[in-house]
Write a structure and sequence with these properties.
The protein is an alpha/beta fold. Helix content is about 50%, strand content about 15%. The protein is built from 13 helices and eleven strands.
């Protein structure tokens, strides 16, 4: 896989300065226009504000771009034909020189190849509800397990089976460490009620654990709860997710379309509350990721 590494990213890596990778699916498929482009720029600003270099990752012109420039961010935000690129899609999209926005799984792999140790995202994918029948499990989990990258996120998406997601990560040997929390965050909700075996309370402590895990050649998850001011009520959110799951079953929605459908239903039910929460947690995760990257570099 050919990498096109931006000059500022390459310089930071060569000087062993902190770099934070950012996924691009949230730009192309996760947020509406023009909020998607505004948020992409804001996330890069959060990383720079933390004294790190942002590297938004995407696919363009037959290369894996590590550090998209503003022109590419604009394309990702506005082109209706941007492919959503997970691991299975990397080779086909690269081969046809297509434009692609990378998921967590693809971003983690590309970041690892570029030598970037930390990435920030919203929430990771995981084991879907009903996976015992559908076998629907996100590629994010194995990608994190086999690539030495720290993924800073707000836990896993609320619409997933969070207990099974955590169990799968344990089986894969991926530590999930709560950041100033002892419970697994659930994306828009501060806590899922699921206890985590490990907790840190600052970036320096997180960096110590990250350094040990990356030295093993494997990834790690730092789970940061959304701010109390922007989080959704847990009971209300769970009730709306259950309703959305039933609606998806009635509509025959499955596979890659399921998570966007469920999140869309949840957004409608909360009158846009999930949209505000999404931007909030994205920005917070970018800040925490830059702090961890800085601690790793010192």
């Amino acid at each position: 896989m050919k990498l096109a590494v931006a000059k500022d990213v390459a310089a930071a890596l060569a000087a062993r300065q902190p770099v934070v990778a950012l996924e691009s699916t949230v730009i192309a498929h996760g947020l509406p226009r023009p909020l998607n482009l505004e948020t992409a720029r804001a996330l890069e600003g959060e990383v720079r504000g933390g004294a790190a270099t942002p590297a938004t990752i995407a696919i363009a012109a037959g290369t894996a771009v590590v550090g998209a420039d503003d022109a590419l961010l604009v394309r990702l935000a506005n082109d209706p034909d941007v492919a959503k690129v997970s691991l299975r899609d990397l080779a086909p999209v690269l081969a046809r020189h297509g434009l692609g926005a990378t998921t967590v799984a693809a971003t983690v792999e590309i970041a690892a190849r570029a030598g970037i140790a930390v990435m920030a995202t919203g929430g990771i994918g995981g084991v879907h509800r009903g996976a015992e029948r559908s076998f629907d499990v996100s590629a994010d989990l194995e990608a994190i397990a086999r690539n030495p990258v720290c993924v800073v996120c707000a836990g896993a998406k609320l619409v997933l089976d969070l207990s099974l997601t955590l169990e799968r990560l344990e089986t894969l040997g991926v530590p999930v460490i709560g950041y100033a929390t002892s419970e697994l965050p659930a994306f828009y909700v501060r806590s899922s009620g699921i206890r985590l075996p490990h907790r840190v309370d600052d970036a320096l402590s997180a960096a110590r654990a990250v350094r040990e895990q990356l030295a093993r050649g494997a990834g790690i998850v730092i789970a940061v709860p959304i701010s109390a001011a922007d989080g959704l009520d847990r009971a209300q959110a769970e009730a709306e997710v259950a309703r959305a799951v039933r609606a998806a079953q009635d509509a025959g929605v499955s596979g890659a379309a399921l998570t966007p459908y469920l999140l869309g239903q949840l957004g409608e039910a909360t009158s846009g509350g999930t949209l505000r929460a999404n931007v909030s947690l994205l920005r917070q995760n970018a800040r925490v990721a830059s702090q961890i990257a800085l601690a790793l570099a010192t």
